[in-house]
Structure formats: structure tokens, C-alpha cells
Fold this sequence. Notes:
This protein is an alpha/beta fold. The protein has helices at about 15-30, 45-60, 75, 90-105, 120-135, 150-160, 190-195, 200-215; strands at about 5-10, 35-40, 65-70, 85, 105-110, 140-145, 170-175, 220-230, 240-245, 250-255, 265-270, 275-280. It is built from 8 helices and 12 strands. The termini are far apart.
Amino acid sequence: MMSEAPLRVVQLGCGIFSREGQGPAWKEMIRQGRVTMVVCWSRSEESAREMCAYYDEVQGSIKVEAIWGEETWMGLLQREDIDAVTILLPIHLLARYSKAALEAGKHVLSEKPIAGNMEEARSMVEFYQARRKEHPSQLYCIAENYRFEYAFRRSMQLLGEGTLLGRPFMVELTAHVPHLLGSKYEKTQWRREAKHLGGIITDSSVHFMAGLRLLMNSEVECLSSFTSKHAAHLPKVDTLVASLRFCNGTSGSAAITFAATSRLFEYRVRCERGILMMIRG
């Protein structure tokens, strides 16, 4: 029986997270023979070549091609030696690049969130839903990782009818996450410019809200919130306090700030027969 051919991937974007976040996973899949990294593209030659060298450590004789420059990425999407695209770019660019890759017939893994504003986000959802009708095997995934983490998957097994804790009816999220001046991600230029809606709140809180939806096993039906800005070095709002109602009739709250100087991060789920607490370091 012949083994399945490796997925041929192009990476668009070679910043910090491409190496520290997705990079180790891609490396492991290369080692397993499941993926061949074909091209690393960046706006700068230096970062493209550095990323290629990173994958060349494990890819052996098949060297990764470095391509750079604002005018070169669209041509990559037309290449027949590429099956899939992973997109690690500033938030305000994600929807544009994802749509172009999907239109070129590639599978797409895009960093979160789906887009830089609500209009683009809704447009992308509608576009992909329509495209799936004609191309049902084409995949488009947003790289939100909480849904795959053991802590959340195990927690979901403990919640609900017939489980140890029983049906959850209320959830509280407290997330005090320092985003200090000069820290690794804060000093990224595109985060300082923050051309996307909501600044750091949108950038990181997409994870926190995904966690709430997982734990309550429901989408959010209604949300009311206040936002404010307290850290002088952050370009947009950095604090959010929200009340939520879920489609299954449960409710919750979220208190999130990136202006804190110390970390506190926990979920509390109140259930029929007890409480589940998840504390993240």
C-alpha cells in the first residue's frame, strides 16, 4: 500500500510567532514525513532566509525556497507544487491573503482572528460557506489553539448532563495579562500600529472567548461590555469587562486587561454539583 504524499506547504509570514508558535509543529510534521515546506515568504529577505534555515534543519535534501517582497506573494498561490498555505501576518492582512489563497484552490491555515474588523470577518465566513458548496474538500481553519488543549478537552468531559459536576450554568473569566512596554510581542511594529479593530483586546482575547464557548458548550447569544485604556504605551483599548448570555441559556462574565503588571488568569465554571476551576500560568 502506497503511503500518502506529504502536504506541500508555503508559509506566508516569518515573524516571531512563526518560529516560536507554529514552527515546532511544522517541524515535527516534516520529521514524520507528513509535510514538505516548499517556500517561506516574507516582506524582508532576512526573515525569509532565517525561516528557511530553521526548516532546513529537519527537511534534509529538499531545501526550502526563500521568497520575499510585497509583489511576490500572489504568484506563489498559482504554483502547482503547493497544496496549502499557512498565513502568519498582521491581523489587518489576514482576510485578504486568506481569500486569495482559497480562490487559488489552496487549503488555508490562518492565524487568528479571522479578520481585522467585523465587516471583513462576516464577509470571509460568507465567502467560505459559499465556496464549500462547490469545493467541499477545501479546508479553511483559524489557528485558535485552546480547543485542542488538554485542559479544555478534559474540562469538557467533566461538565454536562450525567457528568461528575453536572450541568454548568455560570462561568467567570478573569484574565490579567501583562503586555509590558518593550516585551517581545509588544515591540512588534504592527502591534504598535494596530491597524485592526480593538488592538491587543482583539489580538489575544479571541483565545479567552474561545475558552468560554468551549466550557459552556455554546455560542454567545448576547454580549454587553465596557472597554477602557490604561497603559500609555498601548495604542488602543487594553481593558474589557463584559457580561455574556449563551445560546443554551447559561450566562457568564469576562474581566480582561493587558494593562496589568502581574498575571492572574482563571476560569470558574459553576455547575449543578460543584465548581470547576482552571488556572493558567
